[in-house]
Amino acid sequence: MDPEVALRKIIHIDMDAFYASVEQRDDPSLRGLPLAVGGSRERGVVAAASYEARKFGVRSAMPSATARRLCPDLLFVKPRFEVYRAVSEEIRAVFARHTPIIEPVALDEAYLDVTENLLGLPTATAVAKAIRAEILERTGLIASAGVSYNKFLAKVASDHRKPNALFVITPAMGPDFVAELPIGRFHGVGPVTEAKMKRLGIETGADLRTWTPERLRETFGSAGAYYYAVARGIDARPVRAHRVRKSIGAETTFAEDTAAFEVLAARLAPLFDKVWTGADAKGMRARTVTLKLKFSDFAQVTRAKSLAVPVADRANLERIGLDLLAGLFPLRRSARLIGVSLSGFAQDEPDGPQQLGLAV
C-alpha cells in the first residue's frame, strides 16, 4: 500500500436521525416519541425516522401506510428543509475549525481528512471527540463518528455502535475487523446484492476475501474490484474537498422488486427531496433531469430531459421525474432500483439531452 494512503487519518461524521432529531429539538413535545418526517398517516413516503420509530421497524423510504401499520402511534411531521440546511451549515462550520479537507455526502454526513488538523490535536480520535462536543454545544444535536485510516472503514466505524457513538478502527484492527463484518454491513452492498452474495455463500468479509479478482469481476461487474479491496481493509479513495460535481443524484434499492408505477413513484419522493436539497444547499441549478431504473436481471435504463432554463424548484423536478418514469410504462419486467439525478449545471452548459450515470 502507498505509505501516504496508509498514514491517512479519516473521520466520518453522521448525524443521528438528523431530520427527526432537529424536529424533536425544536418541539420538546415530540421528544421520546416515535416520529416520522415526511409523508402522512396514510399517503406518501417516510423521509426520516426517529430512533423511537426505528425500534418498530420504521425506516426512511418506507411508504407511510406501512410505517403506520408497524407503529400505530407514529407521529408525522412535515419536513422543513430550510431549517435542516441552516443546521447543516452550522455543523460544517465546526468541521472547518479542524480541517479544510471536507467532503460533504449529504446535509447530515461528511468525510474529513484530519491527517493534519488545524488545532494541533494529538490524534484523530481527539479531533473526533472535539467535533462531536462542539456540534452538541452549538446545535443541541448528537453526531456519531467513525475514525480510521480510509473512507470505507471510517464509514463502517461511524455506524458500528450508533446512536451517539465514537468508534475507532486502527490499521492493526482493519483486516480482522472486516473479516468478521457481516456482508450486509459493507457500504456499497445493498439488499439485493447482499441477497445475491448470501446465495453464493458470502456471509462475511472473510468469505468475500476467498474470491479472486477475476471471479468477482465476472459476478459483480465493475464493483468487483471495490469488493476485492475493501474485503482486505483497503480503500485508496481520498477525501475530496470542494470537488466539482457533474451531477447530484440519489437512488434506492428495493427489498422486493416491483413493476407498479404507484410504488415506484412513491419511492422517488424522498429521492426528489434529497437531490433538490443537495443542489439547493450548494446554490447549484441544473438543466438536465435523469431517471434511472435497474431491473431484476441487473439490466438498466436511463431517461433524461434537458430544459432551456434551469429546473426551477423541487415541484418541477418531481413533475419531470414522474413524466420520465411514466414514459417507461408499461414495464416488461420488475425493477430492483430507482434513482434520479440533476446535471448540466450552469458551468457545464450541456447542449441537449444526455444519458448520464447516477452520482451517489
UniProtKB/TrEMBL annotation:
Its main location: cytoplasm. Its EC number is 2.7.7.7. Residues 10-190 form the UmuC domain. Mg(2+) binds at D14, D108. It is found in: Cytoplasm. The keyword Flavoprotein does not apply. One of its GO terms (cellular component) is cytosol. It catalyses: DNA(n) + a 2'-deoxyribonucleoside 5'-triphosphate = DNA(n+1) + diphosphate. The active site is at E109. The record marks Y19 as: Substrate discrimination. Its cofactor is Mg(2+). Binds 2 magnesium ions per subunit. It is an enzyme of class 2 (transferase). Keywords: Cytoplasm, DNA damage, DNA repair, DNA replication, DNA-binding, DNA-directed DNA polymerase, Magnesium, Metal-binding, Mutator protein, Nucleotidyltransferase, Transferase. The keyword Nucleotidyltransferase applies. One of its GO terms (molecular function) is magnesium ion binding. InterPro entries: DNA/RNA_pol_sf, DNA_pol_Y-fam_lit_finger_sf, DNA_pol_Y-fam_little_finger, DNA_polymerase-Y, DNApol_IV, PolY_HhH_motif, Rev_trsase/Diguanyl_cyclase, UmuC. One of its GO terms (biological process) is error-prone translesion synthesis. Monomer. Belongs to the DNA polymerase type-Y family. Poorly processive, error-prone DNA polymerase involved in untargeted mutagenesis. Copies undamaged DNA at stalled replication forks, which arise in vivo from mismatched or misaligned primer ends. These misaligned primers can be extended by PolIV. Exhibits no 3'-5' exonuclease (proofreading) activity. May be involved in translesional synthesis, in conjunction with the beta clamp from PolIII. This is DNA polymerase IV. The lineage of its organism: Bacteria, Pseudomonadati, Pseudomonadota, Alphaproteobacteria, Hyphomicrobiales.
